[in-house]
Amino acid sequence: MDRTEELHWRSLERMYLGSPINTIYEPSISVSHESAEISIQIQERFFHAAGAIHGSVTWKMLDDAAFFAAASVVDDVFVLTTSFTSYLTRPVSEGELRSLGRIVNRNRSQIVAEAVAFNQDGREVGRGSGIFVRSKQSLAEIPLYGSAEE
Questions:
Q1: For residue 145, is it within any domain?
Q2: φ, ψ (nearest 5 deg) of residue 121
Q3: How many structural domains are present in the chain?
Q4: Could you tell me how many helices (H) and strands (E) the chain has, helices first?
């Protein structure tokens, strides 16, 4: 593994964990080459009226894992989600929610990544796939990305 690549992945993790939205979810993340794993502990504040987590929570976990899998191979600019399709297959109301993202195809203009979410028993609760593209915003301009030398 290349040291520059490793520093990029740690910077992506720092950027994700420092994002204001994640003060709500308190996730953990691990980024590696063409893949990412994200997990959260289920909290009642994520529930809809029927006592399970709202679909937006699972969708976020799927999109985030696929996004960071895609971002793992782009070390100069921020990546954007241009489309994301998800399928929620099972309710979750306790324990940990974990999502695994991986790149399934890439070319010069786009990256296709997919993610699968699992409950604490390892049962699939949702899956999704998206298309990700390079933006014009340099990662170096994003304070949360931080210095690659840290």
A1: no
A2: -90, 5
A3: 1
A4: 3, 6
pTM of the model: 0.94
Q: Give the C-alpha separation, 7 to 52, whole Å.
A: 37
Task: Say yes or no to pLDDT of 147 above 80.
Answer: no
pLDDT in tens, 35-81: 999 999 999 999 999 999 999 999 999 999 999 999 999 999 999 99
Residue 146 in 3-state DSSP? coil
As to burial, measured by CB atoms within 10 angstroms (0-12 exposed, 13-18 middle, 19+ buried), residue 100 is buried
Q: Does residue 105 surpass a pLDDT of 50? A: yes
Can you read off the two tokens belonging to residue 96? 């940990």
Query: Could you tell me if residue 117 is inside a domain?
Result: yes
Domain range spanning residue 58? 3-139
- CATH assignment at residue 15: 3.10.129.10
Nearest Cα neighbor of 58 from 66, 70, 69 is 66
